Every structure is written in C-alpha cells, then in structure tokens.
Amino acid sequence: MNNKKLLVGIVAAGLAVSLAGCAGGGGRGADSGSGSDSGDNAGALVGVAMPTKVSERWIKDGDAVKSALEDKGYKVDLEYADNKIPQQVQQVSNMITKGAKVLIVASIDGGSLSDQLDSAAKAGIEVISYDRLLTGNENVDYYVSFDNYKVGVDQATSLLTGLGLADADGKKVDGAEKKTIEVFAGSPDDNNANFFFGGAMDTLKPYLEDGSLTIGSGQDQFTQAATLQWDPATAKARMQNLIASTYSGGTKLDGVLSPYDGISIGIISALEGAGYASDALPVVTGQDAEAASVKSIIAGQQYSTIYKDTRQLADQSVVMADDILNGKTPETNDDKTYDNGEKVVPTYLFQPTIVTKDNYKEVLVDSGYYTEADLK
Ligand code: BGC
Questions:
Q1: CA nearest 49: which of 62, 59, 38?
Q2: Cα 260 to middle of ligand 1, angstroms
Q3: Which of 3-12, 99-108, 131-140 bottoms out in mean pLDDT, i.e. has the lowest?
Q4: Residue 329 and residue 23 in contact, taking contact as beta carbons nearer than 8 Å
C-alpha cells in the first residue's frame, strides 16, 4: 500500500471511530460508559415515569413498557405521579440516584424536569421523552410519540364528518346545512395540546371562513379553550358556562371538538345536565379510545375518538432503550418536527386512527386492544 492510500485509510478509520462516538445519542454514551460496550448493561435499571393513573391509557402504557423491558432482562422502576409536578420531579430524581441507565419519561409539565435532565446528562443517563415532549432543555435524547398534528386533523375531520359537512375522506360536502360548534383544547403545559389544537383548527379553518361552521361563543383561541391538566371537571364547568352564556336562548349546539376522552365525558355530562337527551347529543370527538368512551360511542353518545395503539409506543420506547443500552443508535423517522426550544429532538412517530361506531370492532377488538367483554 502506498503512503497516500494508508493516510486515507487512517483518516477513514478515525472518522468511523468519531462517528461511532456520536452514536447512542448526543455522543454522551461513549465517554460516560452508558452502553457503548454492548453487554455492559445487561440487567440495568430503567426508570419509567408516567403522569397519572386517572386516565386509563397511562396505565396501559406503563404496564406495557414495564413488561417489555422485563422481557429483555432489565430492572424497572415504574412510577406514577398522580398529576402532581413536584411528585414527578422527586420520582425522576430518585431514579437517577438509584442508578438508572435510561429514563423513559411521560411528563406532566414538559418544562418542569430541567434540573433532572441536567443531572441525568452529567451521569451519562440517556432520556427518552415518551408521548409528551420534554421542553426547554437540550438533554433530551429521543422522542417517541404519535403524529400529534395528525391527531388534531383527525379529530376535526371526524367532527366535520359527524356534522355532515365532510365525507368520510374529509372532502367538503357542497350545500350542507350550517352548523354551530364549540372547541376545547388540552393542557397548556403539554406540548401535544398545541399540536392537537393546531391540526384541528387548520382543518376547521376553511369551514369557519366560509361560514359553514360557527363557533357560537366566539372562543376560538387556544388560551380560551385550554383545559389545565386535561381535567374532566374543568371541561365540564367550562361547558356549563358556555351553555348558559350562548345556548340558553335557543341557539342549537351541533358539535364540540374535544381533544381527549376524559374531557369528552365532562362535556357530555354538562350537556346531559342541561337537558340534552342522551340520544340527541351534539357530535363530540375525543382521543385515546378509553373503554368508557368506546362504550359511550357504541351507545350513540360520544361520536368519535382517536385510537393510538399504546402497545406500539411502549414497544418502540423499549427498542430505543435497548439500543441505547447496547451502544446502538435508535432508529427515528422524524428529525425535524419536534423542536423543544433547545434542540430538535430525534423522533419516532406512529400514526393515529379515527374510531367511530362503524369501525370500532375492526380497529379495537380485531386488533386485540380490547375484548368484546371489555366494551360491555
Ligand atoms: C396524550 C393524549 C392524552 C392526553 C391526556 C396527551 O399528552 O398524547 O393521548 O389524551 O395527554 O392524558
């Protein structure tokens, strides 16, 4: 080999080594010892922080993540924080102290764990943001979620379909009767809430602009529609106020955009309390395909929900954690959408599905997400 070839070879090898150093997320794995040598981390502890058990989806998420990690031989510290931010801060701090090697975090307030993210980075612990983006800190290695903008588009599309303003493919129906709606949004400290509302409002915009759709109260801003901590009781109280202020004089309410099944239940409860018959409710949307809401859909009360297969999300977060712990770079499929204010976080996204009375069996039962008995 001549000298020139040898030099090229050395430079190429050096490049390969430095690229390998970058693998495993932000280049921290190599010098921290967190998984750059495969085999090191067999049986390692993984911390899994979930927001609350009030909503059934997070219980499914937590259970699925835990069992998939255990199947791979890891130890798991799974904690729920009862929707209390200080409790979650404490839980994540404890996971770091206990020597977790990877953290999988579904936050309550995406911006509240910055000190913990800094400590994790110092200790060489990699962090996977689960479903909800951790914001305002560069020490977030990966994000796994659903296409949250598309969730909002789907919510609005099902609202339009239920109102007869669009067909099943989301195409505008010409000459349809004008409709009046109200819109609700999720929690302002959850990055997803903006994506859901943004996707939904972009989809409703042409209908609002040409007058085929009106928001009766005029409350069309995120800040007006938001529901702190996704709380059903807060949504119920807002719906009661809207009924009193806007719909007590005979104006007909035809539909309500709701971003989450728990909020939908609050909205429906306010409507029934105000005298709406349960077989003649406005079209109400939702999200998460929670059993109570699927039952409500089957009974003809809630109109739709958005199904997000939490098994997919859980499995992918575990694949990512396992890759990290084996010194591999996890696969991502969206490296541009999720800017957390400090960095664009490499993301793996799944696709949501609209569920109504027409397809719940095929989507939820045939896939094994629920048994028929779960929905009785
Ligand atoms: C999740 C939704 C859920 C909501 C309330 C969001 O971050 O993406 O699936 O409905 O939180 O728990």
A1: 62
A2: 7
A3: 3-12
A4: yes
Determine which residue's CA is closest to atom 5 belonging to ligand 1.
Answer: 230
User: In this predicted model, what pLDDT tens digit does every residue of 257-267 receive, in sequence order?
Assistant: 999 999 999 99
Are 303 and 315 members of one domain? Answer: no
Question: Residue 170: its pLDDT value, please?
Answer: 87
Whose CA is closest to 222, among 147, 152, 161, 130? 152
Note the pLDDT tens digit of each residue in 22-42: 333 333 433 333 434 445 899
Give the H or E element holding residue 28. helix 28-32
Q: Are residues 134 and 167 in the same domain?
A: no
Atom 4 of ligand 1: nearest residue by CA position: 260
The neighbour count for residue 170, using CB atoms within 10 Å, is 15
Which residue, chain included where needed, has tokens 């010409």? Answer: 174
pLDDT more than 70, % of the chain: 90
- Closest by Cα among 71, 78, 79 to 43: 71
Ligand 1 midpoint to CA 37 (Å): 36
pTM: 0.90
CA distance 108 to 92: 12
Measure 59 CA to ligand 1 centroid, in angstroms. Answer: 12
Atom 3 in ligand 1: residue holding the nearest Cα: 260
Asked if 278 and 290 sit in the same domain, the reply is: yes
Residue 34 lies in a domain: yes
**Residue at 359: amino acid letter:** N
Of 47, 72, 74, residue with least CA distance to 62: 47
Task: Tell me which residue range forms the domain holding 187.
Answer: 148-308+355-375
Is 190 found in the same domain as 48?
Answer: no
